[in-house]
Amino acid sequence: MRFDTKVTFYTEKKGQYNPYTSKHEHAREMWEVLANVTNLGTQSQMRLLGKLDSGAKTIRLLEDPPEGWSYLTINDDKARYVKKTEVKALKGHALIVGEQK
Predict the structure, then answer these.
(1) Which long-range contacts (CB under 8 A, 24 or more apart) does 26-34 make?
(2) pLDDT on residue 73
(3) What's 2's DSSP letter?
(4) What is the pTM of this model?
(5) Are the beta carbons of 17 and 77 closer than 8 angstroms?
(6) Which of 23-32, 33-42, 80-89 ranks highest by mean pLDDT?
(7) CA distance 63 to 82
């Protein structure tokens, strides 16, 4: 299994109110890791999610993902993915994610 795809985890927190711009500024943290990313098969989608989701992917990591992440991107793509479910395996961690709508 090759861990050759860059996955970026983002955490967005509501920041402080800026009186100069009259807006709330959002603080964003990010972590980049290498992962193995594959599309989730039809049978697995029906068994795990109970429905078909065309944007579902399986992301395998060597270590646990960061705590409290909001969404992730794959290879700096504009599509955002959110967690559907996760599995803690003996050798690593697996996430099932779907496209954020």
Answers:
(1) 31/66, 31/69, 32/6, 32/7, 32/8, 33/6, 33/7, 33/9, 33/61, 33/63, 33/65, 34/3, 34/4, 34/5, 34/6, 34/7
(2) 94
(3) -
(4) 0.76
(5) no
(6) 80-89
(7) 18
DSSP letters spanning 55-83: T-EEEEESSPPPTT--EEEETT-S--EEE
- Going by pLDDT thresholds of 50, 70 and 90, the confidence category of residue 66 is confident
Residues 46-67 have a mean pLDDT of: 76
Percentages (nearest 5) of helix, strand, coil residues in the chain: 5, 55, 35
Distance, CA of 91 to CA of 12 (rounded, Å):
29
